[in-house]
Amino acid sequence: MQVRAMQGDTVDSLCWRHLGSSSAVETVLDINPGLAALGVILPNGTLVTLPDETPTARQTELIQFWD
């Protein structure tokens, strides 16, 4: 999916608005070469490609010291 940045948008805010989570920020930066070079606040009208799905969070093993 491709979206256009509005005034004041960041990659985080685009992910949150269109994907419902900001967990895809690294993926968005990977699939949009040069996007990070534009700065934190994206220029108005910047075309950004978003992934079709948000990446799943890694499962970490829970270690309990006391039962």
Contiguous runs where pLDDT drops below 50 for at least 5 residues? none
User: What is the H/E order?
Assistant: EHHE
Mean pLDDT: 88
Shape: elongated
Strand order within the widest beta sheet: 1-2
Q: Structural class given helices, strands, pairing?
A: alpha+beta
Gap between N and C termini, in Å? 47 Å
- Gyration radius from CA atoms, angstroms: 15 Å
Q: The biggest beta sheet, please?
A: 2 strands, antiparallel
Share in helix: 10-25%
The count of helical stretches stands at 2
- What is the tally of beta strands? 2
Estimate what percentage of residues fall within beta strands: 5-15%
Describe this protein's structure:
The chain has 67 residues and is α+β, with helices and mostly antiparallel strands. It contains two helices and two strands, in the order E-H-H-E. It has helices spanning 11-19, 25-31; strands at 2-4, 47-49. Strands 1-2 form a two-stranded antiparallel ribbon. The model has no long low-confidence stretch (mean pLDDT 88).
